Amino acid sequence: MITVTHLTKRYGDTNAVNDVSFTVKPGTVAGFLGPNGAGKSTTLRAILGLTPPTSGGATVLGVPYAQLPNPASRVGSLLDADALHPGRSGRENLALAALAQGVGRTRIAEVLDLVGLTDKEARKRVGTYSLGMKQRLGIAMALLGDPSVLILDEPANGLDPAGIVWMRDLLRNAASRGCTVLLSSHLLHEVEQVADQLIIIGAGRILADGSPADVLGSTGRLEDTYLRLTATTSREGLAS
Amino acid sequence: MTTTADHSLHAPSDTFGSSPRTAAHASSAAPTVALGRLVAVEARKLVDTRAGRWLLIATFALATLTTALLAYGSAEFAPGKPLLASELANTAIGSLTVLLPVLAIMLAASEWTQQGALVTFTLEPRRLRVLAAKVCALVAAALVSCVVAAGLSLAVAGVASGIGHQRVDWRLDAAVLAWSAAATLLATLQGFAFGALLMNTPAAIVVYFVTPMLLQAVSAIGSKVADALSWLNTSSAMAPIAQGAWNDVHWGKVAVSIGVWVVLPLIAGSVRLVRREVK
């Protein structure tokens, strides 16, 4: 369960996130959509306690993320696949996270196997990884603690078509097991196939939030709805 | 389960890799992130990058080299006198003040310079606990380094005695070595405090090494200025104490300089850390 309540984040004069509220229930994959600079990443960072909100807030599993005991073991997140020390190997990055979370070593091999990184690749320094490999490692880190909530920012970024299909199955499966999944993405077609809830944000405000049937209405196509909803806000965004 | 080298991913059936969620796995994920585990993580970060490993190797190489030079010099220029093991160990521990602060700066600042902060503070959002864990890991590493450096210096003395046939006075002055270790620890903590405040590895290294030079230069203005600045010089403040000649003024200078160079930057860095947005 993820609950965002009247979340506002102001930088100087601009409201990056402006009175945003939404809820994602367990067993749901929520697609979080919006143009660049719409406030998606700021919202996700605020949920994870990385960005202090100007007002409002968010809870995960009923409490603010920072108050969860051992939060990463219950909430898996991937915000930036580049946010890993380039001088450490993939396996070492996982080992540090496992050590902090108190997760056993066998789990490291499991998640590496799961995301399709070979032993040889895992021993290489992350600085030598391609974007797709970093993304796989980031997903492995998110899954390390076998979490019941997943918060992923552009997880399919850099993945090949097979990887994207795998990602879709992973998310659907997680939701069917009762996981709460919040997924930001620009891949509308992918989101359309996987999401049971669509949250569209533009210029820091929620433009639509509901089931695909509710949000898409009679047009039935996510792309049309998305472009129509974000047309004005993205122009504003570019102008400011 | 099969593993293939071509990045093909697993069938959705084993989505979470749950080779049925093992009880061991479930129970090993402790309810809170214990401080001990965080300290272990930070200690591991000191040595698990090439930069960290080479810095430690260079640190101990320097300790060995300086003591070897001292032993050689003693044999060459004061052949009649015995080689003092205590002096060698003191020099070895003192040599740590050159590079251990750099390691400390890296531990404090590389989260920000080399990425990693996002993961670190997602794993443990209580940021001051992470800072405390880093300090604990660093203090332990500095003390172990002092013991290792002293051990290396004694090995040098052993070589001087065995191969160089130098007479060695093996008595160790515990008080002198303890003060030397304390000074090394302080220098290391000062480096850490600078790194924690500036959150930028190169900037902190530059400020750490330039500050004493600046103080020295400013001291040259006049004796009154020099006298005032002596309150800010940790090593000169500690020197008389190490030699057993201390009074209240000496202790005061030690306290003031530690306050200014370690405690204040650490407090300011903590405030900055708590407020900072992690991206």
Pair of chains with the largest interface and how many residues each contributes: A-B, 60 and 56 residues
CATH superfamily of the largest domain in chain A: P-loop containing nucleotide triphosphate hydrolases
- Adjacency order of strands in the biggest sheet of chain B: 1-2
Which geometry of chain A do the CA atoms define?
globular
Sheet with most strands of chain B? 2 strands, parallel
Q: Mind summarizing the main beta sheet of chain A?
A: 6 strands, mixed
Major beta sheet, strand line-up of chain A: 5-6-7-3-8-9
Structural class of chain B: mainly alpha
Query: Helix proportion of residues of chain A, in percent?
Result: 25-40%
Q: Any low-confidence stretches of chain A, pLDDT <50, length ≥5?
A: none
Mean pLDDT of chain A: 92
The ordered H/E elements of chain B are: HHHEHHHEHHHHH
Helix content of chain B: over 70%
Specify the oligomeric state. heterodimer
Domain ABC transporter (chain A): 2-228
Family (chain A): Belongs to the ABC transporter superfamily.
Protein name (chain A): ABC transporter ATP-binding protein
Keywords (chain A): ATP-binding, Nucleotide-binding, Transport
